[in-house]
Amino acid sequence: MAEDLDQLFRLYHRELQQIAYHRVGDRQMAADLTQDTFVRYAGLSHGAVPAPHIDNPRFFLMRILRNLVIDMGRSVSRRGEHIALHDVDDYLLDPSAGPERQFELRRQLECLHLALNELPPLCREALLLNRLEGLSHQAIAERQGVSASMVCKHIMRALRHCIRRLGLLDE
């Protein structure tokens, strides 16, 4: 599955990002939507329902992207601020949740912290700057001294690693 995803990423990443940019008019948002498209695609075969056979992955990726664009349009007015890293504990731990749920959320948070600490520094930094501080790929690239494409690869690698470590994606 990982090899297929890497191949699909190489084949369709640029095209999907251009389509997303055309639809939303924001390069950062287009990059995020493209990444989320591949993350959703990767998660298909790991749900409770067996993954469907996909005859045309390009079309399927475009369909996922289209749905994400629609979802984003619906949620623009509801979007809040980015959550600071030190606030993640409070966000994940619902005070009204029972002890079992709190234990599970704590376990997931610890697993996420471990996964983040296992990442190479540039991957971890790129992911945190993008997802927590809301920086664009270009801004991260300038800060790290790499290309925006490399930032995208760092973020995809970090997301894939975290998803695996949280048990959401088989290796």
From TrEMBL:
- The answer to keyword Transcription applying to this record is yes
**Annotated InterPro entries:** RNA_pol_sigma-70-like, RNA_pol_sigma-70_dom, RNA_pol_sigma70_r2, RNA_pol_sigma70_r4_t2, RNA_pol_sigma_r2, RNA_pol_sigma_r3/r4-like, WH-like_DNA-bd_sf
GO BP term, example = DNA-templated transcription initiation
The protein's superkingdom reads: Bacteria
- A matching Pfam family: Sigma70_r4_2
Domain RNA polymerase sigma-70 region as annotated: residue spans: 8-78
Which Gene3D superfamilies does the annotation name? 1.10.1740.10, Winged helix-like DNA-binding domain superfamily/Winged helix DNA-binding domain
Keyword terms: Sigma factor, Transcription, Transcription regulation
Q: Which GO MF terms does the UniProt record name?
A: DNA binding; sigma factor activity
Where in this chain does the record put each RNA polymerase sigma factor 70 region 4 type domain?
109-162
Q: Which NCBIfam families does this one have?
A: sigma70-ECF
Which PANTHER family does the UniProt entry name for this protein? Answer: RNA POLYMERASE ECF-TYPE SIGMA FACTO, RNA POLYMERASE SIGMA FACTOR FECI-RELATED
The UniProt similarity line reads: Belongs to the sigma-70 factor family. ECF subfamily.
Name this polypeptide is given? Sigma-70 family RNA polymerase sigma factor
Which organism encodes this protein?
Answer: Pseudomonas brassicae
